[in-house]
Amino acid sequence: MEKQILVTVSNDTTLYGIGFVCSFFKNLDETKITLLCVTSESQLNTRSDIEKAWYSPDELKKSTLSSKQKRALDAAEKMFCKHGFSDQNMEIKITSKKQSIVKDIVREGHAGHYDAVVLGRVGTSAFERILSEKVTDSILSESIDFPVWICREPEWGRKNVLLCVDGSDSSLRIADHVGFILAGEPEHGVTIFHVNRGQDLDREKMFNDTQHILEKNGVEPGQICRKTVSSLRIVHTVEAEALSNGYAAVATGLTGRHKGKIQQWLAGTITMELLKRLDKVALWTCR
After folding, report:
1. According to DSSP H, which parts of the chain are helical?
2. Which CATH number among 3.40.50.620, 3.90.1150.10, 3.30.70.360, 3.30.300.30 corresponds to the domain 161-286?
3. How far, CA to CA in Å, does 86 sit from each of 7, 91, 183?
4. Which residues pair with 118 in a beta bridge?
């Protein structure tokens, strides 16, 4: 089944998000990429009518980008082409900033009905890291109905997905997403992973329900395994499991299985802590 992936392009040429997508997907014919650049209004309004007349619509859009954005977009296109993505499966969208970068990305994510929105996580300087965290953290606090991938500094060559489950509706939704993405990608497996803190939980049902969702999406039973670790340190346990076993991505719901605001806040806090701590591994999450 065709997968529609929105990849955000900023003015950073490290291109961690693009690198992760290129490294992860093998079934390229079924993977459609949209590169999104958000420009400032001031850039859009500096061109004279005479100058605009010399540009085609696509050239005019690119002319509104800053020099750093142009370099990043050119590098992104070259990287995708180098790793086998065809021009027919790639689209570029350049839009002016209407509210904030965060809200504009969310708006495009909603409007385009994408299967995932990919954000890079720069790490070359403290200043860039702060800016990146503001964007990615703010998106996770928005009311979003699409999965978000945060790729802070992924390591090439990693495989498979660590799917963290707790029996919540949110973890079932992220399981559905993982199943959809891994369908047609047989070189990746998925581990259904649960950190047992002694909760009153029917774990067998939780694992069975999750596996049913994965298989319903087209993941083969041989691609799926299960693992439970007893620990009170959820973030540390997930991080250690992901890093030591070469996973490409950690997938987790953004909200927990309890309905109370405090419990939901705690579940979100765990995901946000994973976002800050995970290195070499991408984080996939949704509400």
Report:
1. 16-24, 41-44, 49-52, 57-63, 67-82, 101-112, 126-141, 169-182, 203-216, 234-244, 261-277
2. 3.40.50.620
3. 16, 10, 20
4. 7, 149
Residue 238: how many other CB atoms lie within 10 Å:
27
172's tokens: 């079932």
Q: Which residue has the tokens 């296109």?
A: 77
- CATH homologous superfamily, domain 3-151: HUPs (3.40.50.620)
Tell me the C-alpha distance between 10 and 66, whole Å. 10
* Sign of the torsion angle spanned by Cα atoms 2, 147, 124, 236: negative
245-279 tens-digit pLDDT:
999 999 998 765 544 443 443 445 777 788 878 88
**Residues 4, 112: contact at Cβ < 8 Å?**
yes
Kindly state the helix (H) or strand (E) to which residue 31 belongs, with its residue range: strand 31-39
Q: What is the pTM of this model?
A: 0.85
Domains 3-151 and 161-286 share a fold: yes
Domain positions in the chain are: 3-151, 161-286
Structural contact between residues 247 and 161, judged by C-beta atoms closer than 8 angstroms:
yes
Instruction: Check: CB of residue 76 under 8 Å from CB of residue 15.
Output: yes
pLDDT per position as a tens digit, 131-184:
355 666 666 666 677 898 988 888 998 999 999 999 888 899 999 999 999 999
- Which one, of 177, 120, 168, lies nearest residue 144 by Cα? 177
Q: CA-based angle 227:232:234, to the nearest 5? A: 60
**Could you say which DSSP state residue 115 is in?**
S
Task: Tell me the C-alpha distance between 82 and 104, whole Å.
Answer: 29
Alpha-carbon span 129 to 133, nearest angstrom: 6
